[in-house]
Write a structure and sequence with these properties.
- The structure is a single chain.
- The protein is an all-alpha fold and about 70 residues long.
- It has one domain.
- It is about 50% helix and about 0% strand.
- The longest helix has 11 residues.
- The two termini are about 25 Å apart.
- The mean pLDDT is about 85.
């Protein structure tokens, strides 16, 4: 669709975990997107992304430029 999620919701993942989360690898039952990925690894993706965003040193300057 040509859309991109805001960087505010980005999470750094290694290639293996990115492929697993997007369903490129792993058993079929594990290909459930973010919810199954969160359940498997025991975390909340939105909460973790928010924490990364709050701690990013360039956040204040970025928000001043971009709103």
């Amino acid at each position: 669709m040509g859309t991109k999620a805001s960087d505010r919701f980005a999470l750094p993942l290694c290639q293996r975990h990115h492929d697993e989360q997007s369903g490129k690898i792993g058993e079929f039952r594990q290909r459930g997107g973010w919810r199954s990925f969160e359940l498997k690894y025991g975390f909340n993706a939105v909460a973790v992304a928010g924490e990364y965003w709050r701690k990013w040193p360039g956040r204040v300057a970025w928000e001043a430029r971009n709103g």
